[in-house]
Amino acid sequence: MKNVDFDQFEWNAALIERYNLAGPRYTSYPTAPQFHAGFDAEAYRQALIDSNASQAPLSLYFHIPFCAKVCFYCGCNKIATGDTSRCGPYLERLYQEMDQIAAVVDTSRPVHQLHWGGGTPTFLSHQQMRELMQQTRARFQLRDDDQGDYSIEIDPREIQPDTLPLLRELGFNRMSFGLQDLNLQVQQAVNRVQPREMTEGALQQARELGFRSLNLDLIYGLPHQTPESFAQTVEEVIDMSPDRLSVFNYAHLPERFKPQRRIRAEDLPSPEHKLLILEQTIRRLVEAGYVYIGMDHFAKPTDSLAIAQREGRLHRNFQGYTTHSDCDLIAMGASSISQVGPTYAQNHHDTEGYEAQISQGQLATLRGLVLTQDDILRRAVINQLICHFALDTQAWSRTWGVAFNDYFASELAALKTHEQDGLIEIRPEGLRVTPAGRLLIRSLCMVFDAYLDQPSLGRAFSRII
Description:
Blueprint: H1 13-19, H2 41-51, E1 58-64, E2 66-67, E3 79-80, H3 87-102, E4 110-118, H4 126-139, E5 141-142, E6 149-154, H5 163-170, E7 174-180, H6 184-189, H7 196-209, E8 213-220, H8 227-240, E9 244-249, H9 271-287, E10 291-294, E11 297-299, H10 304-310, E12 315-317, E13 320-322, E14 328-332, E15 337-340, E16 343-347, H11 351-359, E17 365-370, H12 373-388, E18 390-392, H13 393-400, H14 404-407, H15 409-420, E19 424-427, E20 430-433, H16 435-438, H17 441-446, H18 457-460
Parallel strand pairs: 1-4, 1-14, 2-3, 4-5, 4-6, 6-7, 7-8, 8-9
Antiparallel strand pairs: 9-11, 10-11, 12-13, 15-16, 16-17, 18-20, 19-20
Helix pairs in contact: 3-4, 3-11, 4-5, 8-9
């Protein structure tokens, strides 16, 4: 099928109200609620061994859970502390985990992608960051040609003048900066005061050092935000000209995330204002030349993410949209999730459980999943729709040796309602998501999800919009 025009979307308020239910974000399929304790450390170890037969390149993820200060909106797995000494024992366990993995994985497989997330990875001292990269390089085949995607999440409040030069020296060439909002009242309400000059200065320094892709994270739905105030933030962000933008929806769940109890529900924008903020933001970013990649991601047309989407190579995993669909993702650290061959494996969530299991000479796997053939077929459909807004069903049938229309006859019947509502076109050659359907892509993907238990959706997942 011909690629769709990616910088078009249609905001249909009536359809959004009708379909704006809870649903997965599809960073994996099956989604994390399907993971189970029957998939243990030994199962993950065997999956790592089996993966060597493919000789697929590697993507490495390291979770650094420490932050100097807690942001009240945060729902991430993190430890807010001023005690930098806590990093030492955690890093030692990371090195032990690397040893255990390197003992079974063919480490000649090149590492095409590497990411440090958190938490705040730059909470580590410069010496600790240097050591972590050295320990990684000693065990895995890191690239030396600067052609891999080596990225790190940055809090501009927690860097020194020589931090970014060090990261570039260590081999990082991509960065993601937390920003959230530039309005001072909003920043104060979420305990993250970060003047524009601080973020802009870090972006400028990163460009001068040769970082080739810079991302800014924004959050809408925070206390005291209004459509007018967030529109001003978006204008200033456009002026800063990041290569990519993530615009996340704040989900207020104080019963699950203790820091959110510091946010007063009465200070949050109304649902109507949240939708207006999102609509204005998408329109303005597209107008400014950004490509609406999907979900909450935007990129300049020249960015590798937009290029991969145009060329049909975009993929989605636990880190969001990615250009590396061919890699086995090996994730290390507390709560991290790996995707190796037809398996998912998640480490212990808390650092105590993680460190205890690693110190006993075992991989820290808490739960996981081996995909069935049905899972793999459905994952291929969902990934194609959520990344490319179109599916060539005839090509899919040839690739998998399965007649799409027969295998998914009930799903195609269920999609008729979506087609009547103008969200998708069902054609003999395949499926095409309409501009109105792109904002509701999660709803379309849910039709192909064999695990959804409708009564539990609201407890397990956020709303689509």
